[in-house]
Amino acid sequence: MLKEVIATRYITPLREGGSLPGLIEADDLGMYVLKFTGAGQGRKTLVAEVVCGELARRLGLRVPRLVTVTLDEVLGLGEPDEQVQELLRASGGTNLGMDFLSGALGFDPLAFPVDAEEAGRIVWFDALVNNVDRSWRNPNLLRWRGELWLVDHGATLIWHHNWPGADTSARRPYDASDHALASFGPDVTAAAEQLAPLVTEELLAEVTAEIPDVWLAGEPGFDTPDDLRRAYARPLLARAAVVHERIQGLKGAV
Ligand SMILES: Nc1ncnc2c1ncn2[C@@H]1O[C@H](COP(=O)(O)OP(=O)(O)OP(=O)(O)O)[C@@H](O)[C@H]1O
Ligand SMILES: [Mg+2]
């Protein structure tokens, strides 16, 4: 289970984020980037963050630690900004938090070279989860203490928006031509050899167990949160073995 903290103070919105994530302080005195359950993108964005973040971490990629953040909507009462006030009011209960990497810089491909192995592992992972939100325009990669960190996995797992078509959707190729790391010669074949065998049913069960029940309950077509957890695992298990052959748009690749 993800660590649970209670929000004690809303500090400021992170203006760059489309979903208006906020910076908060919690009862453990930590500072967290908060992704609101009441944001327009809905709770599936938060589920995608948990599945991808916890999977990436287990594959050895760097992702800020995730926590659940309990929010009392009265925290919004003192907020002068109406949009923020509304978000806080709509997000009482369980939200997603991640460790705030203080002083992190946005990734700049011209200023920070990435080796082909690391680029390969990240592109392969993004192909696995069908991440369409790591382009050179919006890399969602941070440089912190000299290393590359992955953030923002809300726009992944496109198949969870239409479960009856999930298996078909998960067989589609991944277009990496716009990927932020495409120019570093990502070695996706080496990445697949190293990472695909790690993506087992057991690992995916462990990853999906981290999703809070409240974000899974009531999904049409599923009786229990655990049924839905299995539905999250299945396309990833099938895709892991073959996805490196379905990555399109990399120079030198077919
Ligand atoms: N853990 C973190 N530590 C420090 N900065 C962060 C962290 N997470 C996100 N940020 C910063 O906040 C920005 C917005 O976060 P994120 O991309 O997750 O939000 P979003 O609303 O999904 O964004 P968008 O849809 O615009 O890409 C990031 O681009 C990054 O600059
Ligand atoms: Mg982003």
Write the layout of secondary structure elements.
Layout: E1 3-13, E2 22-26, E3 31-35, H1 43-58, E4 66-71, H2 82-89, E5 93-99, E6 105-106, H3 116-129, E7 141-144, E8 147-150, H4 166-170, E9 174-175, H5 188-195, H6 201-208, H7 225-242, E10 247-248
Parallel strand pairs: 1-4, 9-10
Antiparallel strand pairs: 1-2, 2-3, 3-5, 4-5, 6-7, 7-8
Bound molecules: adenosine-5'-triphosphate (ATP) and magnesium ion.
Magnesium ion (MG) is lined by residues 17, 138, 140, 152.
Major sheet attributes: 5 strands, mixed, barrel
Radius of gyration: 18 Å
Strand order of the largest sheet: 1-2-3-5-4
The helix/strand class is alpha+beta
What's the helix count?
7
Shape: globular
Number of strands: 10
Structural domain count: 2
Q: Beta fraction of the residues? A: 15-25%
Pfam families: HipA_2
Protein name: HipA-like kinase domain-containing protein
InterPro entries: HipA_2, Kinase-like_dom_sf
Domain HipA-like kinase: 12-240
Sum this structure up briefly:
The protein is built from 7 helices and 10 strands. It has 2 domains: 3-99, no CATH class; 105-248. It is of the alpha+beta class.
